[in-house]
Design a protein that fits this description.
Two copies of one chain form a homodimer. Chain A is of the alpha/beta class. Chain A is built from eight helices and six strands. Chain A has a six-stranded mixed sheet, sandwiched between helices. In chain A, helix 6 links the parallel strand 4 and strand 5. In chain A, helix 1 packs across helix 2 and helix 3 packs across helix 8. The radius of gyration of chain A is 17 Å and the shape is globular.
Chain lengths: 209, 209
Amino acid sequence: MPFDYIKDPAEIYRKSFEIIASEVELDRLPQPMAHVATRIIHACGMVDVMKDFAFTPGAAMSGIEALKRGAPIYCDVEMVRSGIIRRNLPANVEVVCTLNDPRLGDVEEQNTRSANAVDLWDNLQGSVCVIGNAPTALYRLLERMEDGAGVPALVIAMPVGFVGAAESKDELTRNKLGCHVISVLGRRGGSAMASAAVNALTILAGMAE
Amino acid sequence: MPFDYIKDPAEIYRKSFEIIASEVELDRLPQPMAHVATRIIHACGMVDVMKDFAFTPGAAMSGIEALKRGAPIYCDVEMVRSGIIRRNLPANVEVVCTLNDPRLGDVEEQNTRSANAVDLWDNLQGSVCVIGNAPTALYRLLERMEDGAGVPALVIAMPVGFVGAAESKDELTRNKLGCHVISVLGRRGGSAMASAAVNALTILAGMAE
């Protein structure tokens, strides 16, 4: 028995976005954020993630300008890095994940490996930081910002899970640390949503093919 | 202001699983599947994903035996491959993603790149196939199975999204193609849940450290 399914990638995208637009009141968002929200919803298959969507005014533009400037993108896990479409980015943009950096060693000291990896993000000032997995990585980023290590142009804050995910995102939005934020609050998040947000920015910037 | 958060990885896991067990009736599942479900819920932060959880009786054991035998793990996207914890696997198990295989060329012909990539999965018989992103990859896998290309030991079927995700998973569970299945039905799914299911099997098998 042949299976009947849509095989044209452009048509799959078009239909997906049409369904999302029909189920979500996207016009409640400013235009750039409506596009980011659409891509996040597309990545997770859940329209109700909209209710947890949070951002600072101007966050999309701040992220776009950083990418155009060639700022690095720091990712907490390899899954986030894998999800970022490299061909959409300017060639000089580094997509960095330090979780498997040999400098970290094999032993987790004082904090999780995900958090220790954030200590290796050398150029925080003006960067784009993407947390798609570990709440402890987001907490460590907040600590470093408080310690004066630099203010990212944008923090895409989407750690996921039951311990610290909601709390770390609340801390980020509660504390006025001067950075722009795009977040999915609560327990939900993940590397697919986080990398989708980056990809949305590259498309908005006209960087994509 | 110092941030107060749990930094001990073992304690974060313990507490996460405690919360999941308190919110989900895991004992409605046979033991191996309760562990797989816990890991999937842990990966997505959603306890209600349980209602979409589906599997064939014996699926976990079939997957474990395949991994112990050294069967390949085929992944539809790099994000799934990144999420699979390699150090938990026997050294002879290959984790394969053909999405960026040069044999595919640059042009999408007749079907999506994700679907064409499935045509390069050379040893389907007895393998573990993990679909964490593309419905078209799952459809293509079903077509290949119908064409006699081999029966996987386990299909972890978790494509995500609005076009074809629910439908392709319904086809897999409706058609009796002889393979074991672990799935999250409906629009939800994704590479984090899919790789979490693989990691759960390696832990159940005693392969993990």
